[in-house]
Amino acid sequence: MIQLWVGIALLTLLALSFIFVPFIQAKKAQSTAINTDRTRKNIEIFEERLSELEAERVAGNLQQEDYEELKLELEKNLLEDASDEVLPITSSPIGSKQLIIVVLMALLIPVTAFGLYFQHGSARQLQMSMAHPDQLRFENGEQPTVEEAIQMLLNELEENPGNAEGWYILATTYMNLGEFDKGVASFKQVLDVLPEDATQYVGVMGQYAQGLYFAKGGKMDEEVRQQIKLTLDREPLEVTALGLLGIDAFEQNRLEDAVGFWRKALQNAEPGAADSLKAGIQRALEQLALQGKPVPDVPELATAGIQLSVSIDPQLGDNIAADQVVFVFAKPVGGRMPVAAVRLTVGELPTTISLDDSMAMTPQAKLSLHPNVEIGARISMSGQPQAASGDLQSATVLVAVKEVSEPVNLVIDRIVD
Fold first, then answer.
1. Which windows of the sequence hold TPR repeats (predicted)?
2. Secondary structure (DSSP) of 235-256
3. Pairing relation of β-strands 351-356 and 325-332?
4. Rounded (to 5) percent helix, strand, coil in the chain
5. Average pLDDT, consecutive stretches of 10 residues, N- to C-terminus, the chain (417 residues)
6. Closest Cα to residue 237, out of 210, 212, 272, 262?
């Protein structure tokens, strides 16, 4: 099995490079000054949050295992941000359709592919196919070429033509390499051998429609429309089919329709695909505004946020230096690590601020993921985020994240024992 996964990993990396390299090359001519500033800011945020984690660990509020996990997550986020910022902000000639299609392909196809494999995998059959003499050398660390990796899949499918996940991996590989006709044929094989009651069946139907669309040069002809209809008849919220309808509407400047299709798809989208759909919706709304047309309200684009009014009791304020650090935070009920936090100084108070998902410590610990949180504010005499004797703090307020409409009033009026 090791050599199969080597082949799949290589195929995935190479396939994605075929998609994204042209977009990267198309943008290299522009200045990267903006990205330098963003990188510097990301590093500053990383260092600040890392110091907060270290302080929590030293204070005994955070176990070593949790500390290492959160630290690793912060490092991964920093690397991901750095990777994203290699592409400069520019007015590229790349079209909206190309951008949306690339993102949808990158996010939707791999997630479904691996879900299909683990649900209906035939690990034993795949392992048998690895017994071919030509493939044994991969066990010694030699990497297969893309042609060899594809041949590994073809060998398996020749011996086991009913292997649905094998056909699916082959189909998505061909699609990512731009060999759309072969991808369509392989998707058809998946539909022929996969049980219709399988949970992934309708998703493959949507990707088959997408393959037809690409194979026809991005043309929404009758065959593509019919496949989309068959898919949506089975599952009205199938994300790929709705995404295609949105792309087609966007290209025809039917922006309101595009927004409608993508909003509907959001109801059934995984987090990564949802981000892509929201980006498409935002772009369509911007185009509507530029054309002077009414811009509909899209609540799905709103992120969770809590407005706070933070102040100090006048009886305490006179004795505190203006540069003393103030931490304002939201924590899960009964939890220790904040899901959103902001750092201020006493000199900035009183003030009104907002806590939202942009202030999350990690992507998995967002304000919007919690129905209720505890809000508080604390003046740290040591400058560290953990509470210590002598610090000044507010009362803790329990807030329903999605129901709060008025600013939450936090008054720092008590001393930490």
1. 164-197
2. -TT-HHHHHHHHHHHHHTT-HH
3. unpaired
4. 60, 10, 30
5. 48 52 48 48 65 66 69 61 42 47 53 50 45 50 75 88 91 91 95 92 95 93 96 96 95 95 90 82 90 85 81 83 93 86 93 84 71 93 89 93 85 92
6. 262
